[in-house]
Design a protein that fits this description.
Oligomer: heterodimer
Order of helices and strands of chain B: EEEHEEHHHHEHEHEEH
Structural class of chain B: alpha/beta
Order of helices and strands of chain A: HHHHHHHHHH
CATH superfamily of the largest domain in chain B: P-loop containing nucleotide triphosphate hydrolases
Number of domains of chain B: 2
Largest interface: A-B, 19 and 17 residues
Bound molecules: adenosine-5'-diphosphate, magnesium ion
CATH architecture of the largest domain in chain B: 3-Layer(aba) Sandwich
Distance between the termini of chain A: 12 Å
CATH topology of chain A: MetI-like fold
CATH topology of the largest domain in chain B: Rossmann fold
Helix content of chain B: 25-40%
């Protein structure tokens, strides 16, 4: 188990270290201004100096992303299930959902501020909106691929609609739903930060999106880099958590979990 | 010879035309005696599955009638060519599924599932997942799931068709033993003449395009044990089944 984890973690770790080293060498050779591209060490220093502010900010952003993700997961699975259950609703609503997905989030964000006000609620809503569609689509796809033989078996046993959903369609769709959730986990952090860009306060309770904006205004590129890295780490953590959950749910019977 | 058993199911002049115009059955008639095994043989596409689904209430004839003794549909259970087990459930909870869907309390359905698993020689495999079983074991689990509700009518659609010959013969003998114990009426679809002659008190031969019944033999062997397959009487009944099938094919060619 630990050996397998190490074997999985080693190649990406080596790639990351190599990239940072290349970045460092490039900065030393080409000597760009600190304002354009800071050296890795400068970024690390900025992080250490500001960590008392940065870490809580990243946690606030991660919290908004996680809350938005949770809402999107529940709404996506529910909506996907309803659409999968009714051919009429699917024909009527799915194209609409696809269309809504095309509207750029940045364009809706100001509307979210109008509806949810300034503060974390806008970030949560924004995170939920970007991550709901992959969950919905994955649920719908997974449920519609339910084995017809098993569906017939449930028919022979006179299963109720609810039994069919809970005991057949939902577990059948689970591998697909987990894939959708993993995509949604990554998107939710992007959504949260976009929400923060338009609708968060600067001050004691700043999330990472606000820190990025104010560091940019102060020409602190090193701090921008450190914040971005922290935001990426938050996204990665959420993605990892969801992947772990999926693995735990599927490992006994599904090939994708090895 | 014993008195003929009263029919549990009476299929009279049944036709079935699907929405796309396919005539799966036209004028099929047969009797299914209660408490006996009836085998349906015929080439693929002759409407065997359609007929079986009608007996189980999953489909209805477009002409003719399927009638049941006493007018009420017997409690029926199906087993299909594929085991159709839920891959995420243990064998025992797969077997208990029909009871679970019918609202039987957990403790009781566990006990009943364990009991029937024991009868199909899967007592030790209850906690395993279907993916960990061999094809023959999965099929036995599927039969156990069909029997767990103690049905009056067991409908089997080419149940052992995907298995190797040795496993298939073992499962035929297991089926006979279970039938001897529970006494339910069995209708089994097969395209193996040997299997049909071995299992069926009555063997119904069907022909395709459109699906119909072309004949019926009643082998009437005193006992059905593995040794029976090597006897001349057994060879005689498979030969007459083969002839019936061949004749139906010739007639079909003549008509075309
Ligand atoms: N739902 C359906 N719609 C249209 N045609 C069907 C349907 N089910 C079966 N058929 C057709 O009816 C015929 C008989 O099918 P089936 O009863 O499955 O035959 P068998 O089990 O003997 O192979 C076949 O030609 C098949 O393609
Ligand atoms: Mg068939």
């Amino acid at each position: 188990m630990i050996a397998r984890l190490l074997r999985a973690a080693l190649p990406p770790a080596i790639v990351v270290i190599a990239l940072v080293a290349a970045w460092d060498i490039a900065v030393r050779l080409m000597q760009p201004s600190e304002y354009l591209v800071p050296a890795p060490l400068a970024v690390a220093r900025a992080f250490l100096e500001q960590r008392a502010e940065l870490v809580p900010a990243a946690l606030r952003t991660a919290g908004s992303a996680a809350a938005g993700f949770a809402i999107a997961a529940a709404a996506g699975v529910l909506a996907g299930s309803v659409l999968a259950a009714s051919r009429f609703l699917m024909r009527g609503l799915y194209p609409l959902a696809t269309l809504l997905q095309m509207v750029p989030l940045v364009a809706i964000a100001p509307i979210l501020v109008i509806w949810c006000g300034y503060g974390p609620r806008t970030s949560v809503a924004s995170a939920a909106i970007v991550s709901v569609f992959p969950v919905l689509a994955a649920t719908l796809d997974g449920m519609r691929s339910t084995d017809p033989g098993l569906a017939e078996l449930f028919g022979v046993c006179r299963a109720s609609r609810l039994q069919r959903w809970w005991k057949l369609e939902l577990p059948w769709a689970l591998p697909s739903i987990v894939t959708g959730l993993r995509i949604a986990a990554g998107l939710s952090v992007i959504g949260a930060i976009v929400g923060e860009f338009v609708g968060a306060f600067a001050g004691d309770a700043s999330p990472i999106g606000i820190i990025i904006l104010s560091a940019m205004r102060e020409n602190r590129t090193d701090l921008v880099f450190a914040s971005v890295a922290l935001a990426a780490a938050a996204g990665f953590a959420l993605f990892g958590l969801v992947s772990l959950l999926g693995w735990a749910l599927l490992r006994r019977w599904h090939a994708s979990a090895g | 010879m014993a008195a003929p058993a009263p029919p549990l199911i009476e299929v009279t002049d049944v036709g079935r035309t699907f929405a796309d115009g396919t005539r799966a059955l036209a004028g099929a008639s047969l009797m299914v005696p209660a408490g006996a095994i009836t085998a349906l043989v015929g080439p693929s596409g002759c409407g065997k599955t359609t007929l079986l689904r009608m007996m189980g209430g999953l489909d209805a004839p477009t002409s003719g009638a399927v009638r049941f003794a006493g007018g009420a549909r017997p409690r029926a259970a199906f087993a299909f060519q594929e085991p159709r087990l839920l891959p995420w459930r243990s064998v025992v909870s797969n077997v208990a599924l029909p009871l679970e869907l019918a609202g039987v309390p957990r403790g009781e359905r566990r006990a009943r599932a364990e009991r029937i698993l024991d009868r199909v020689q899967l007592a030790g495999a209850g906690r395993k997942l279907p993916g960990q079983l061999s094809g023959g074991m999965r099929m036995r689990a599927s039969i156990a799931r069909a029997l767990v509700t103690e049905p009056e009518l067991l409908l089997l659609d080419e149940p052992f068709g995907a298995l190797d010959e040795i496993t298939r013969q073992a499962l035929d003998d297991l089926l006979l033993a279970l039938w001897g114990e529970f006494g339910m009426t069995v209708v089994v679809v097969t395209h193996s003449i040997v299997e049909a002659a071995y299992l069926g008190r009555q063997v119904v031969v069907m022909a395709p395009a459109p699906g119909r019944v072309v004949g019926c033999i009643k082998p009437g062997f005193a006992s059905r044990t593995p040794a029976l397959r090597a006897t001349p009487e057994f060879a005689a009944s498979t030969a007459s089944l083969l002839q019936m099938l061949a004749q139906s094919m010739v007639r079909e060619k003549g008509a075309a």
